[in-house]
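S2.1 Query sequence (Palmitoyltransferase)
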Amino acid sequence: MLNYKGNLWVRKNYVLGNRTQYPLFLGTVAGTLLLYLYCDFVLLQKYCEIPNLSKVIVTFQILSIYSMFRVNMTEPGVQMQTISDDKYFDGKLCEKCQAIKIDRCYHCKFCDHCVNDFEAHCFLMATCIGRRNIKYLLGLVTFTGIALYLLLLILIYKLFISDCKKELTFIILNIVSLVLTLVHLNPFIYTTWRNASQNWTKKEMNRTKFNGSPSYIYKNYKQFFTRFYDSQLYESFIQY
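Output structure tokens follow.
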């Protein structure tokens, strides 16, 4: 049997993210920070009457920023490669990058490497989304959604319950802005959680019928949040 943990398999040198897209990633981070600062120092201080609720919202904002950097800085699951003169290997190789082809491994044309459990290339995060960093993307959209929903509830409460006729237009504009943001964010939250519950990638969604069994969903979520170590990938190579 070949030694899959030895020198036979080598990984292409990987640079964190796509360097040419880093300005876009930094712009995304800066824009998100500005949004959160506006929410904290303008909306929360002005309209939130529950101090602990403000702390909860800020906590979710910090978690979303942390998840954003983890998505970018975590290697997404770049597939192993075989040495060019390996005469013992007779499996499938990617025609573009010579990576070992296994199920659910696809080539990213923007980063020029194959990624395990490939979802998509995210330009805002300047990296591929794959086996190792998909859970951080899930955290990013989830934490951001929770923080914005809580802020939206505060503004709706001030609009219909409290006496704030002088600032009615300002509150309505902020509510409309939050609703529009959440309308675009909700599909990402729903799709990511749904695919994780069924062990689907983006390319596999809707190919099979949704299984709503609690035990099946629990098993897939458990795998989803733990399947990012290289040691779990070597078992897939044994078939070759």
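Residues 36 and 42 are 10 Å apart (CA to CA). Confidence is low (pLDDT under 50) at residues 1-13, 228-240.
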